[in-house]
Amino acid sequence: MSLNFEKMNNDGNSFLNDLSDVLGFPGEKQKAGRILKAVLHTMRDHIPVETSLHFLSQLPAFLKAAYVEEWKSGAHRRVHHVEEFLFQVVGNDNVTGTGELDTVED
């Protein structure tokens, strides 16, 4: 079986276009991608490595790249409330310097 990078690229672009529509800003796939990455990185930081690897194995190739980008092994952080998780998503989004998410409400 050979790798088909063009198909992965097309699948990723289609996914981001659909996500941007669902999030309420059609056609802004770069924005959707930055928000998706912030959410994936926050999830990754809160689950044990073994669980993270199992989750990663279930993702399509185009999402795997976003999930593992800048991944550093270490202890995962516990979250006790949804609001705490959302604050960390906003913080991870701001790491990119774009600040798509200014508040938890966003």
Description:
The chain contains five helices and no strands. It has about 110 residues and is mainly alpha-helical. Helix 1 packs across helix 2 and helix 2 packs across helix 5. It is flat and about 40 Å long. The model has no long low-confidence stretch (mean pLDDT about 80).
Which key terms come to mind for this protein?
106 residues, 5 helices, mainly alpha, single chain
Summarize the structure.
This protein has 106 residues and is mainly alpha-helical. It is built from five helices and no strands.
Order of helices and strands: HHHHH
Counting DSSP H or I runs of 4 or more residues, the number of helices is: 5
What structural class do you assign from the helix and strand content?
Answer: mainly alpha
Molecular shape? flat
Ends distance: 42 Å
What is the count of β-strands? 0
DSSP strand content: under 5%
Query: Percent range for helical residues?
Result: 55-70%
Mean pLDDT equals 82
Radius of gyration using CA atoms only: 14 Å
Low-confidence stretches: none
Q: Largest sheet, described in full?
A: none
How is the secondary structure organized here?
Blueprint: H1 5-23, H2 29-46, H3 49-58, H4 61-68, H5 82-95
